[in-house]
Amino acid sequence: MTKVKKEKLDAEEPAGVPERSYHELIANLNPIAQPLASRKLSKKLYKCVKKAARVKNIRRGVKEVQKFINKGEKG
């Protein structure tokens, strides 16, 4: 059997849910979450995390991170 390419579902957004602005999202933060990354930096961080997740290069949790640091993995 041949593989059927999946259509991109990300392009379709629900029409009833408007996207909230950056300032609206900041207003609902916990006071402990200070200092906060700027809008530009947070966009770069999200992009970097998304890219790392795509290549399965993300480490989750202290135990896993320590293990790979001790082995000498960089990144």
Automatic annotation (TrEMBL):
GO terms for cellular component: box H/ACA snoRNP complex. InterPro entries: H/ACA_rnp_Nhp2-like, Ribosomal_eL30-like_sf. It is found in: Nucleus, Nucleolus. One of its GO terms (biological process) is mRNA splicing, via spliceosome. GO terms for molecular function: RNA binding. Keywords: Nucleus, Ribonucleoprotein, RNA-binding. SUPFAM superfamilies: L30e-like. Required for ribosome biogenesis. Part of a complex which catalyzes pseudouridylation of rRNA. This involves the isomerization of uridine such that the ribose is subsequently attached to C5, instead of the normal N1. Pseudouridine ('psi') residues may serve to stabilize the conformation of rRNAs. Common component of the spliceosome and rRNA processing machinery. Belongs to the eukaryotic ribosomal protein eL8 family. This is H/ACA ribonucleoprotein complex subunit 2. It comes from Oryzias sinensis (Chinese medaka).
